Amino acid sequence: MGFASLVVTVFAYYVTKAMQGDFRQPDFSRPSSGALSFAWGDFLSMLALWCVFALLLGPICGLAGHCARTGPFRLPSQLLVPVVVICETTMRLSAEADRQEGLVGTTWSVTRGLAIAVFLVLIGIAAVSTWRRRTTQAQT
Predict the structure, then answer these.
(1) Are strands 24-26 and 36-38 parallel, antiparallel or unpaired?
(2) Mean per-residue pLDDT of the chain
(3) Are both 80 and 105 inside the same structural domain?
(4) What is the pLDDT of residues 56-79, one digit of tens each?
(5) Alpha helices in 20-139 (DSSP H)
(6) Any stretches that span the bilayer, and where are they (predicted)?
(7) pTM of the predicted structure, to 2 decimals
(8) Which are the contacts of 86, defined by CB distance < 8 A and separation ≥ 6?
């Protein structure tokens, strides 16, 4: 069921992008008319690529989610999502925000700020938990 939901999500994303006109290309058979046609090659290649990525990264993220609850790699697993969000928003702010309207840049900035806050809170919780555990062990 998990694999199917990953593939369905990728399909939904790219079909939505196609409906919004992201896969249009000039129709070179009629260059003077300025006609556009659907870029099936681009659409199908992106769809296939991201389906493969989803099927490869889905189990890894699931394992990271399990490790975030238990295990020796708890903190790094918990920090995975905030780190990805910080990297993604930083990249988008430097590459795309100036070409979008003001609300887009503000949204990416707020999202990055919240991810940084979550990152710091998770580190703080881990530090306090470790300190409490060591204090309790020292008293016994």
Answers:
(1) antiparallel
(2) 87
(3) yes
(4) 988 888 888 898 888 788 999 999
(5) 40-69, 74-95, 102-139
(6) 44-63, 75-93, 113-131
(7) 0.68
(8) 112, 115, 116, 119
Separation CA 22–CA 88 (nearest Å): 20
Tell me, yes or no, whether 35 and 91 share the same domain: no
108 exposure class (CB count in 10 Å sphere: 0-12, 13-18, 19+): buried
For residue 60, give both structure tokens: 């890894």
Q: Which residues pair with 36 in a beta bridge?
A: 26
Q: Which helix (H) or strand (E) holds 7?
A: helix 2-19
Same domain for 140 and 120, yes or no, is: yes
Residue count of the chain:
140
Give the Cα separation of 8 and 54 in Å (integer).
Answer: 10
**Number of separate domains in the chain:** 2
Q: Which residues pair with 25 in a beta bridge?
A: 37
pLDDT of residue 31: 65
Q: Please give the DSSP secondary-structure letter assigned to residue 32.
A: G
Give the whole-angstrom CA distance, residue 118 versus residue 124: 10
